[in-house]
Write a structure and sequence with these properties.
This protein has 69 residues and is α+β, with helices and mostly antiparallel strands. It is built from two helices and four strands, in the order βαββαβ. Helices cover 30% and strands 35% of the residues. The protein has a four-stranded antiparallel sheet, covered by helices on one side. A hairpin with a 4-residue loop joins strand 2 and strand 3. The structure holds copper (II) ion. Copper (II) ion binds next to helix 1. GO terms for molecular function: metal ion binding. This is HMA domain-containing protein.
């Protein structure tokens, strides 16, 4: 299990945070997601055998948010 912090660009408010959190909760391999829109950060706990950074970043692109390490 890996715990990693990403910076999120495009996140503006609580609704964005909710959307992102909901998305990650349903993404296979993610165990935990906590989003802080004031800091524009998301901390993810995920199974590195099922997911990697590239997949995580890609998964959020259709929602209009960009993740950066
Ligand atoms: Cu928003």
């Amino acid at each position: 299990m890996v715990k990693q912090l990403f910076h999120v660009s495009g996140i503006m408010c609580g609704a964005c945070a909710y959307t992102i959190q909901k998305h990650f909760k349903h993404l296979k391999g993610v165990r935990g997601a906590s989003v802080d829109f004031t800091k524009k950060e998301v901390v993810l706990e995920y199974d590195e055998r099922k997911l990697n950074q590239a997949k995580i970043i890609q998964s959020l692109t259709p929602f209009g948010y960009t993740l950066q390490k």
